[in-house]
Amino acid sequence: NAYKALVAAKYNGVDIELAKNFELGVSNKKPEFLKMSPTGKVPVLKTADGAIFESNAIARYVARITDKGLYGTTALDLGSIEQWIDFCTNEIDAPLLSWVLPLQGVWPYNKAKEDAAKEALKKALTVLNEHLKKNTFLVADRITLADIICVCNLYEGMKSVFDAAFRKPYSCVERYFVTCVNQPEFKAVIGSFELCKAPIKLQKQAKKEQPKKQEKKKKEQPAKAAAPPKEKKPKNPLDELPPSKMMMDAWKRLYSCAPANDFRNVACKRFWEGGAVPKSVNNEQFAGYDPEGFSLWFCDYKYNEENTVNFMVMNKVGGFLQRMEPHRKYCFGVMCILQKDNLFPITGVWLFRGQEIPPNVLAECGDIELYNWTKVDHTDEKVKTRIEDMFCQTDYIDGIDHIDCKVFK
To answer: Is this structure's pTM higher than 0.70?
Structure first.
């Protein structure tokens, strides 16, 4: 969402020149663009000192170029601003995209996921509404970067799906949004705004009109129109890989059913060597790790210095896993939240089908870019032990207190 940085620039008096003749789907696939944004995602900010990708990171950079109050005036303001940025990104933006993008034909549509996204949004908007009952803006008494990012995250919902009936329980959120988008700095970027009157519908192909039947002789049968060929769904490139004896679902059942009092011996040993899946009614066997058909990766969050509030870090990890949901068939992951002094570093281990991070994951899950990824050598005993420690959710990871864990399976 490029609006975040552009609005921040208006407040800070910073000039940002938009790229000329940029064509999405073409310009962002060129080598010179991929050097700035390896996944080809937009927006990207090109500066004299280097490039920055990810909309929140760009907005933070722009907000810090000059000090005009977008980051508040105290250390508490700064922490509160970062808190609301994380909240709006994980609790509002993520489920809103899961609702809107399938309706727009960008992502595959799934009614159950749409309903889950709506419920998640209602919970988040209730929290936001309660806060705004007593506050004009999110932090202090003026617009900060938190408000800019929050309003830009709400933008697509207020435009496309939040009709009057949906907005009714969240009158304070509506008041807040309308107040912000009518500020000169917002209007200079997004123009005049009209709240959603009727939510957009799922885009379906229009049915061809059937020609009217002509009067025919009694014995003459009406000609049947040939049915149009069904469009084939594009195959996932991972389904084209050579078959593997290792079944991801069997591993997930083995991991879920391994006894807690002997977890390392059962789950971890059988992960490497194969063995029976506990509690299986049909004596299911897991073939063991296949390094040719699968790969293991460590991930480490790039911005651990920002992880100062425990529950916000948990929400951050939860949002990441929520956005990985469409790729569950090909992935398994354990995300560990550690505690070192007043920081909460995030680290994890992932099992992917294939030898690289799946291309669909790179293309569709922006959180991937927030982590450093390292492909691991499972034959290294130290590496093997670290993987098992994460699988087992031990009390210490890398000698640091391990306080919480989320498993994607």
So the answer is: no
